[in-house]
Amino acid sequence: MIAEEDKARVSAAIREAERHTAAEIFCVIARHSSDYRLVPVAWAAALALLAPLPLIYLTRWTAELIYLLQLGVFLGTALVLSHPRLRFHIVPRQARHARAHDEAMRQFFAQGLDKTEHRTGVLIFASAGERYAEIIADTGINEKVAASVWDDAVSALVAAIKAGRPGDGFVAAIEQCGAVLATHFPPGALNRDALPDKLLEI
Q1: Residue 97: CA atoms inside 13 Å, Cβ hemisphere, count?
Q2: 121-165 per-position pLDDT tens digit
Q3: What is the CA radius of gyration of the chain?
Q4: CA distance 88 to 82
């Protein structure tokens, strides 16, 4: 998803941002937050349930034939919609974003961003499959910084990922977050470097 040279650029951007703030920044990019394997099955089941209705009223086909057709509709639809490119398009946007948010929260805790001494961890998260990005800050930051402050950084990250430049997006988001964090959490006030300066690809 992201070249090693871009990962190095992101690490360098984190180190530079953390020179000016005591907060901790960590980045994660996910290929997708869920495989949504049950979604094609749900669509196939719905279509298979509807398929016999017109046949029952408009034809004189036997029940056995209609049943076989129903099975065919289910299996064919499930097979076609299971293709990765189609599967993501049939999942409602709200459901995709909810899954991506859940994965972002899981990564926040998995990477120990909730364990910094003064609760000043920041996760910059993107899920490419869902075209979703989010910045999650711990409670120490949320007490001083409104969540809406991160909107521009998230927009820059999403736009760059859509354009096929995830490295540029993360660097831009890190720089914008760093500028905000430097204002509220200057260097030296808190312990630093509790987390690795890296972009994790999952």
Answers
A1: 7
A2: 999 999 988 889 999 999 999 999 998 999 999 999 999 999 999
A3: 23
A4: 9
